[in-house]
Design goal:
The chain is an alpha/beta fold. It folds into two domains: 14-155, Response regulator (Rossmann fold); 172-269, PAS domain (Beta-Lactamase, 2-Layer Sandwich), CATH 3.30.450. It has helices at residues 22-34, 45-55, 71-80, 97-100, 117-134, 153-171, 190-196, 214-229, and strands spanning 14-18, 38-42, 59-63, 89-93, 110-113, 143-144, 175-179, 185-188, 235-242, 245-256, 259-269. Strand 3, helix 3 and strand 4 (89-93) form a beta-alpha-beta unit. It starts with 13 loop residues before the first strand and ends in a 12-residue tail after the last strand.
């Protein structure tokens, strides 16, 4: 586990608070501001990552189960960024300590269990003090609020499905991208990083169109817009240029109750057919 560089004990330290629970989103920032902190609330993993990159906060309080990009992946992306990797991160979740250990990419510096608001508030402040005084430490030392903790079965089931999906995406031979409804990249598999010719950290959060040849950007943005407005699932196929390669791009919207939740993109390289060996005479 990485050791953060403390940002000082001043009450003016900035905090990015990431959670999609509306009650916590209102109550926790208010409490932290009352203690003198500058708080920037975010509601999903993409917004959280972009806010952290922009502000370089003193601390991040990070929910794990979030829309768009989950907290464990946000944590991993922060640790891969040379300018952000020492940012102190407090994982704020309904995961049990045993579940936390199953996520090696969740390299937070302290862990706070969700629970009653008054208890949670005290534990978050205790975690911040812990990081101020010790600069982080081992997993056991930085755990708060897990006495008698019972993880929710639904959370365990969701995490199991998530692992199953991630494994399928990782081993797929074609490039797989998960996009939000505006065409920004939320997920990328190893095959796609090879097609892009760059690491995941330089892909996540960027618009898919920004990586394409100029002549292809408008048609991709237009197609994403059409899929976003569609009330039923639709599939589109485009022939494009990506990093001087000819690729086939398949786009499928994910629709629930008539609303687009995101877009699945499949990239397939159009490699020229191998030339036949000359016939022997």
């Amino acid at each position: 586990m990485s050791t953060p560089t403390p940002r000082g004990k001043s009450g003016g330290t900035s905090i990015v608070f990431a959670d999609n629970d509306p009650i916590l989103m209102e109550a926790i920032p208010e409490l932290l501001r009352a203690k003198g902190y500058e708080v920037h609330p975010t509601r999903d993993g993409l917004e959280t990552l972009q806010t952290i990159r922009r502000l370089k906060p003193g601390y991040v309080i990070l929910d794990i189960v979030m829309p768009k990009i989950d907290g464990s992946r946000v944590c991993w992306l922060i640790r891969q960024d040379a300018g952000l990797r020492h940012t102190p991160i407090i994982a704020f979740s309904a995961l049990s300590p045993e579940q936390i250990r199953r996520f090696p990419e969740l390299s937070a510096d302290a862990y706070v269990a969700k629970g009653p608001l008054a208890v949670v508030a005290n534990n978050l402040l205790a975690a911040i003090r812990y990081l101020d005084e010790r600069g982080g430490g081992d997993l056991e030392g930085g755990i708060f609020g897990y006495e008698g903790f019972q993880s929710r079965r639904l959370v365990s089931e969701m995490l199991g499905l998530k692992r199953y999906w991630e494994t399928l995406v990782r081993i797929f031979e074609h490039g797989i991208l998960g996009l939000d409804d505006e065409g920004r990249i939320l997920l990328v598999n190893p095959a796609a990083t090879r097609l892009f010719g760059r690491p995941e950290i330089r892909i996540i959060g960027e618009p898919l169109a920004s990586f394409l040849a100029t002549r292809d950007r408008e048609i991709v943005q237009q197609t994403v817009g059409e899929l976003r407005k569609a009330r039923l699932p639709e599939d589109r196929q485009l022939e494009l240029m990506l990093e001087e390669q000819s690729v086939c791009l398949r786009l499928s919207n994910i629709v629930e109750d008539g609303m687009c939740l995101g877009i699945l993109a499949v990239l397939e390289s159009r490699k020229p057919p191998a030339k036949a060996a000359p016939a022997r005479r």
